Amino acid sequence: MKPRKPLSENMLEIIAQRFRVLSDPLRLNILQRLGDQERSVGELVVATGANQANVSKHLQILFRAGYLNRRKDGLQVFYQVTDSSIFEMCEIVCGSVANQLQATLDVVRGDENAE
Amino acid sequence: MKPRKPLSENMLEIIAQRFRVLSDPLRLNILQRLGDQERSVGELVVATGANQANVSKHLQILFRAGYLNRRKDGLQVFYQVTDSSIFEMCEIVCGSVANQLQATLDVVRGDENAE
DNA sequence: CAGTTATATTCCTGCGTAGTTATATAGTAC
DNA sequence: GTACTATATAACTACGCAGGAATATAACTG
């Protein structure tokens, strides 16, 4: 992301699109419930407390983005996270959020080293 | 992101919001033009070829999200990336995109080890 | 003061999409 | 076949937001 030659418009679109997939709380919730396990749609509906149709749609979005695997077994469909870079990114974001909050806290407290 | 206890709705909202800030091609373009340097709004308008008002608005969004610093000097305003976790995440996404494309390519080519 | 430049903001339009309800599809059990 | 369950899809509504044009604000110049 600090290349000598700037990324093309197309590449920026692709990257932006991938961030967009992760920019919804319910999708993040689903991903977190999945973790490294395989779960059925029904399980995720119960775990998240969200509407079945809505969960199903978000699973499609995550699936089409290449973040999930799909396995059908009888009436149930099981999803699983295939791209663990998701969790890596969430950890980075969490760390970044924590840093910012800490910095804000330091400023509020009048810490000399703050900012 | 694989916690024993699931993250709260609030935390998921915050994380989603941060991903959303990165989910726009023009904002990614601006960040990439900034790199580790400090640049004025005008420079970024030229570099991106985008509308001045639009660049300014996106800079506000990035600034309010805590990704940028602001420094005023006369008529000009200079922005600088403060949170380098942005570039870390972009690199992860780029790697992930590359992996997926490679996997797709392998499938297309009928590679035995694919998928 | 008026004039000019750099940046920010307001207003508007249109598109994308999250959520809900209802319905469709697919699989199972009888 | 009918009835039932699990998941997906369609239709609709409503809201957020990116983009552009015009305007406002701020800072410099003379």
Characteristic key phrases:
three-stranded antiparallel sheet, 115 residues, 5 helices, 3 strands, homodimer, DNA-binding, Arc Repressor Mutant, subunit A
Q: Can you tell me the CATH class of the largest domain in chain A?
A: Mainly Alpha
The parts of chain A where pLDDT drops under 50 for at least 5 residues are none
Determine the oligomeric state from the structure: homodimer
Architecture (CATH level 2) name of the largest domain in chain A: Orthogonal Bundle
Strand order of the largest sheet of chain A: 1-3-2
Overall residue-averaged pLDDT value of chain A: 91
What is the CATH superfamily classification of the largest domain in chain A? Winged helix-like DNA-binding domain superfamily/Winged helix DNA-binding domain
Q: Kindly give the count of domains of chain A.
A: 2
Overview in brief:
The structure is a homodimer of 115-residue chains. Chain A has 115 residues and is an alpha+beta fold.
Q: Can you tell me about this structure?
A:
2 copies of one chain form a homodimer. The model of chain A has no long low-confidence stretch (mean pLDDT 91). In chain A, a hairpin with a 2-residue loop joins β2 (68-73) and β3 (76-81). Chain A has a 3-stranded antiparallel beta sheet with strand order 1-3-2. Chain A is α+β, with helices and mostly antiparallel strands. Chain A has helices at 9-21, 25-34, 41-48, 52-64, 85-109; strands at residues 38-40, 68-73, 76-81. Chain A has 5 helices and 3 strands. In chain A, 60% of the residues lie in helices and 13% in strands. The first copy, chain A, has 2 domains: 1-82, Arc Repressor Mutant, subunit A, CATH 1.10.10; 84-115. Chains A and B meet through α1, α2 and α5 of A and α1, α2 and α5 of B. Chain A binds a DNA duplex (30 and 30 nucleotides) through α4.
